[in-house]
C-alpha cells in the first residue's frame, strides 16, 4: 500500500514541466493520479510522478516547492473538460487574429488553466516577432491573463551570468516559497528525511522567467 506523504513530484502543462509540490496534510496518492496544484502560472492540474525523495530535493531545492491541493474530484474533472473545450476556441481565435495581423506566427496549442483565469499560448515564431497585439486582443476577447510559450526561444543556461528579465508571478504566492518537504522540514529532504540542499537556480523559477505574462 502506498504510504501517506506531504510532498510529491508532479508533472504539469502541455510542455511536460515538473516540480515538487507540498500539501498541508499528508495524502495517499499513486503514480498517475491527477491533482490540483499551484504553479508560477496559476492554479492548474498535474499528474503525480512519485513521492518526493532526498535525491529529488537535492536537484529541486526548497525554492521550487509549490502548493498541492489534493486529488481531482468528479466535479473538478467536469471543469477540466470545459476548459479543454474552451482551449480549442482560444487556438482558433489566436490563428484568426495572427492571420489578420499578418504575423509570421504558427499557433501550436493552448492551455486554459484550472482556475479559468490564466492561459498559456504555445506558438512558434522568431524571438524578434512582436506578438503583443495578438496577445492583447486574445486576452480581451476571452478575459484571460495569457502567458506565451515560444518553442523557438532558447532556454537560458543556468551558468549564464547575464541578467534574466523578471517575469513576475501570476499570483500563486507559493512557488518560490521557502517551505520545506514532508513534515515541513525546511531543509527540503522530502518524505521522511531531513537533508540539506545545495543552493542552485530553482527549476520552476527558471521556467517562470521564460513564460512571461504579456497582459
Provide structural commentary.
The protein is of the alpha+beta class. The chain folds into two domains: 5-73 and 162-209, no CATH class; 76-150, 2-Layer Sandwich (GMP Synthetase, Chain A, domain 3), CATH 3.30.300. It has four helices and eight strands, in the order E-E-E-E-H-E-H-E-E-H-E-H. The protein has helices at 54-59, 74-100, 132-142, 203-209; strands spanning 5-12, 17-27, 34-38, 43-51, 66-71, 106-112, 118-124, 145-150. The strands form two sheets. It has a five-stranded mixed barrel with strand order 1-2-5-3-4. Strands 6-7-8 form a three-stranded mixed β-sheet. Helix 2 (74-100) packs across helix 3 (132-142). The longest helix is centred in the middle third of the chain and has 27 residues, at 74-100.
Q: What is the makeup of the main sheet?
A: 5 strands, mixed, barrel
Q: Count every beta strand, where a strand is a DSSP E run of 2 or more residues.
A: 8
| Unreliable stretches | 157-210
Rounded radius of gyration (Å): 18 Å
Could you tell me the strand content as a percent range? 25-35%
Tell me, what's the shape?
Answer: elongated
Amino acid at each position: 500500500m502506498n504510504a501517506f506523504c506531504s510532498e510529491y513530484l508532479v508533472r504539469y502543462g502541455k510542455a511536460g514541466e515538473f516540480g515538487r509540490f507540498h500539501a498541508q496534510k499528508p495524502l495517499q496518492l499513486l503514480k498517475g493520479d491527477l491533482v490540483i496544484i499551484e504553479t508560477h502560472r496559476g492554479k492548474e492540474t498535474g499528474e503525480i510522478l512519485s513521492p518526493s525523495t532526498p535525491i529529488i530535493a537535492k536537484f529541486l531545492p526548497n525554492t521550487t516547492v509549490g502548493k498541492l491541493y489534493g486529488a481531482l474530484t468528479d466535479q473538478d474533472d467536469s471543469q477540466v473538460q470545459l476548459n479543454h473545450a474552451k482551449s480549442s476556441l482560444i487556438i482558433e481565435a489566436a490563428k484568426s487574429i495572427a492571420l489578420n495581423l499578418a504575423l509570421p506566427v504558427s499557433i501550436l496549442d493552448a492551455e486554459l488553466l484550472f482556475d479559468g483565469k490564466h492561459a498559456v499560448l504555445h506558438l512558434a515564431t522568431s524571438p524578434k516577432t512582436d506578438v503583443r497585439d495578438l496577445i492583447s486582443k486574445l486576452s480581451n476577447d476571452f478575459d484571460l491573463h495569457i502567458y506565451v510559450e515560444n518553442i523557438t526561444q532558447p532556454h537560458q543556461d543556468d551558468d549564464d551570468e547575464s541578467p534574466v528579465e523578471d517575469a513576475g508571478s501570476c499570483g500563486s504566492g507559493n512557488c518560490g516559497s521557502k517551505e520545506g518537504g514532508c513534515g515541513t522540514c525546511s531543509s527540503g529532504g522530502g518524505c521522511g528525511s531531513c537533508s540539506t540542499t545545495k543552493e542552485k537556480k530553482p527549476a520552476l523559477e527558471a521556467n517562470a522567467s521564460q513564460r512571461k505574462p504579456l497582459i
